[in-house]
Design goal:
By secondary structure, the chain is mainly α. The protein folds into 2 domains: 2-123, Cytochrome Bc1 Complex, Chain D, domain 2 (Orthogonal Bundle); 139-256, Cytochrome c-like domain (Cytochrome Bc1 Complex, Chain D, domain 2), CATH 1.10.760.10. It contains 11 helices and no strands. The structure holds heme C (2 copies). Keywords: Heme, Iron, Metal-binding, Signal.
Length: 258
């Protein structure tokens, strides 16, 4: 099943390579080493090729119809997330900074341009979120999670998550993801993976620094609280942060602003 869907991705991979060649011919010079600048996503509509929805069927076998996932289960939603964030993740999986072999296999031969087109396709989807599942955790644990997300803990050098992920926690265009509408298991696993070095972002990996400051109890508390929050405004990322981010993050424009 996945094998037959994988072959659907191939013609476009070649198409992407051809595009990259013709672009190189038109504008010789070194390639831009920073993939996720806002400039790369300035005119997204123009770069989504026709037939994309049928070609990403392989993705929706795991990520749910149109990439919208489900309220339960592990697979993260990808629909409507910031394009630069999605592109960075596809690069991370392809290049080994994140690992999920069944998915890596599908994208290992795809070009940067083709991955960007898929990212732009999923980012452009504007689909409602289901209501959140009932909170799983004691009131004290949920309160600990809320406080860490909204205020951080200065004494332990933990910045508030909202300083980078936005006050509505729906992320910031183009490269910072939202924290809502994600399964508790997925959140636990991602924060744990950053702590152990199994998940990496581009350098400087600010999330690794944040995650290393969190105890296992902090991780459980934050994940339990976040997973139980409703998602405002279909989870659309905000355009900019009110203040500069507390640290620099690789693959994200300076200050988190586009
Ligand atoms: C076999 C199941 C499977 C398939 C098929 C699959 N994925 Fe995934 N994908 C996953 C899992 C599981 C994760 C989370 C992995 C982890 O724990 O880090 C993931 C993570 C992602 C992420 C990161 C999401 C986030 O919030 O950080 C993106 C983007 C993504 N997938 C896009 C795609 C695209 C595009 C395709 C099609 C080319 C695809 N996936 C096909 C299972 C799959
Ligand atoms: C200095 C800015 C910054 C702070 C503070 C921060 N984050 Fe992040 N976070 C990021 C960036 C940037 C990414 C995207 C990393 C990448 O490209 O893989 C991210 C990604 C994530 C993800 C992955 C989402 C997904 O869909 O896979 C989770 C979960 C997360 N952060 C949780 C948190 C929590 C919880 C806190 C607070 C304890 C926090 N972050 C604080 C910048 C920050």
């Amino acid at each position: 099943m996945i094998d037959s869907l994988r072959t659907r991705l191939r013609p476009l991979a070649l198409w992407g390579a051809a595009l990259a060649c013709s672009a190189a011919a038109a504008a010789p010079g070194p390639a831009d080493p920073v993939p996720a600048t806002s400039a790369a996503f300035a005119a997204p509509a123009a770069t989504v090729p026709a037939g994309m929805a049928s070609r990403v069927l392989a993705c929706t076998t795991c990520h749910g119809k149109e990439g919208r996932a489900t309220a339960e289960g592990y697979f993260p939603r990808i629909a409507g997330k910031p394009a630069g964030y999605l592109h960075n993740q596809l690069l991370n999986f392809r290049d080994g900074r994140r690992s999920y072999p069944q998915m890596g296999y599908l994208i290992e031969h795809l070009t940067d341009d083709y991955l960007r087109e898929m990212a732009v396709h999923f980012a452009a989807l504007d689909l409602p979120y289901p209501p959140p599942p009932a909170p799983q955790g004691t009131p004290a644990q949920l309160e600990q999670g809320r406080a860490l997300v909204q205020q951080g803990d200065a004494a332990r050098k933990i910045p508030a998550c909202v300083q980078c992920h936005g006050t509505t926690m729906t992320g910031v265009a183009p490269s910072i993801p939202g924290l809502l509408g994600l399964p508790r298991d997925y959140l636990n696993s991602q924060l744990g993976a950053w702590k152990t070095g199994q998940r990496k972002a581009q350098s400087p990996d600010c999330m690794a620094d944040v995650a290393r400051q969190l105890t296992p109890e902090d991780v459980s508390a934050v994940s339990a609280w976040l997973a139980a929050q409703p998602v405002p405004g279909n989870g659309k990322p905000v355009a900019s942060l009110p203040a500069a981010m507390p640290a620099r993050c690789g693959g994200v424009a300076e200050g988190g602003r586009p």
